[in-house]
Amino acid sequence: MLEVCLLGPPRIAFDGRTLSALSSSLTLTRLLAFLVTHRDQPQSRSCVAATFWPELSELRARRAMNNVFWRLRSALSECDARETYLLADNATIQFNPHAQFRLDLAEFEDLTDAPAATGDESIPDRIKRLEYALKVYRGDFLEGISDDWCQLHRQRLRERLFDTLEAFVVACRDNGRVQQAIESAQRLTVEDAYRERGHQLLIELYIASNRLADARLQWERYCRIWRDDLRVQISEHMFRLQAEHGLGAVEHAFARLTKSSIATTHPSESLNREYLRRELEILRKQDELLDLKADRKRQRENLILAQSVADQLNDPDERIDILARRVWLGTRQGEYVEAIELAQQALSLSSEASDLSQRPLLHRLVGIAAQEMGDFYVALHHYTQALKQDEKGNIVTALPADLNNVASIQIAQADYLGAIGLLERAAQLLDKKDDPSIRLKVAGNLGTAWMRLGVFNSAQRFLDEAVHVTQIIGARCAGWWLIGQQATMHYLCGRTDDAFKIASAAYSEAEPTGDAWVLSHLADVLTRLHLHSDNAQQAIAWANSVNEQADRKAHWRYKMRAKMRLAQAYQLAGQSTRAYASCTEAMRLYESKAQDLEESPELFVTVAMCAVATNDLAVGQHAWQRAEIELNKQISRITEPTLQESFTQLQTTMLPQLSKLRERYD
Question: How much is the pTM?
Answer without folding.
Answer: 0.61
